[in-house]
């Protein structure tokens, strides 16, 4: 099991698609639709001994915020007391706050970076890209060999270009893998039909190019760890028989909020309807997406409904959500078309099945 632990809601950055949008969105209407738990403090008040009783040695505890490294003291205390596996989802700016002996025990890191320097700095603040890379290269030079996943938020359609820039960093052995999520459907005010229709058209073309590139590289025996492609391919060929949400939220991947309640996902960690239990009583129920559109959908067993938050919140009008589903269907169908070619490469032993393995449910979203 994977547990995200929300350490604080504080963050040291002011990113365009997170801070700026949440400031611009005066009221998204969810306060009327969902009952929020008003008793979740800003910083985690969960006792370490309770976390220790709840999280088993085979589980992974993933430090999450806000920015979790603003709570580096608490991270150290937790790591001193638990013998589970550890992960972190961070913006990468404060990595120095955690001594290397602790960093070494974190086997999965998700680091936010949006592609090239110019794009990352535009979204996340000037100098962010270079500082993140400097911090990461330092860890690699000290011998850090855990998996580092580049976590991209895509607010422009040029996914081919931006993922290619991360692939250069994978070649340099700075990152190991990449995933992205399109910044669509998570706020109410930002749907613009004309703009997003154009986005979808360009994004889909870029996805086609990126899949072609991915498969071309397989002919040289190389399988880049591009999470959405791996996850979808595994489901299409039956290596992965799960049909629920590929991020695992609500059944394999849970979140411990700042008061110790266990929720399906960090994004709606204080919404009561997504509570699954608490760290004293354990998990009492799973959350699954029950959506009529998804039930009728031809790709539902691969897509699983994209995202619990998005599917339930329905912040965009139906025509907006349909456009998002158009990107998902295009992505799945484009990989499906490549399955015979990939299977031939597997048969010819140019690539091996193990190269398509990936660990599930610790944070990378499969359906962007
Ligand atoms: S593509 Fe859209 S309708 Fe189909 S399963 Fe995914 S989210 Fe649901
Ligand atoms: S896809 Fe949605 S439900 Fe899954 S982890 Fe991301 S925000 Fe949560």
Describe this structure in words.
The chain is an alpha/beta fold. The chain has a single domain, classed as Aldolase class I (TIM Barrel, Alpha-Beta Barrel), CATH 3.20.20.70. The protein is built from 14 helices and ten strands. A ten-stranded mixed beta sheet has the order 6-5-4-3-2-1-7-8-9-10, covered by helices on one side. Helix 10 packs across helix 14. 42% of the residues are buried. Bound molecules: iron/sulfur cluster (2 copies). Residues 247, 249, 265, 267, 307-309, 365 line the site of one iron/sulfur cluster.
- Using only CA atoms, what is the Rg? 20 Å
CATH superfamily: Aldolase class I
Indicate the proportion of strand residues.
Answer: 5-15%
Strand pairing plus helix content: what structural class? alpha/beta
CATH class, please?
Answer: Alpha Beta
Note the overall shape.
globular
How is the CATH topology named? TIM Barrel
The domain tally reads 1
Separation, N- and C-terminal Cα atoms = 22 Å
pLDDT < 50 runs, ≥5 residues: none
Largest sheet: 10 strands, mixed
Which small-molecule ligands are present, each listed once?
A: iron/sulfur cluster
Report helical residue fraction: 40-55%
Count all strands and give the number: 10
User: Mean pLDDT, rounded to whole units?
Assistant: 95
By CATH, the architecture is named Alpha-Beta Barrel
- What series of H and E elements makes up the topology? EHHHEHEHEHHEHEHHEEEEHHHH
Helical segment count: 14
Going across the biggest sheet, name each strand in turn.
Answer: 6-5-4-3-2-1-7-8-9-10
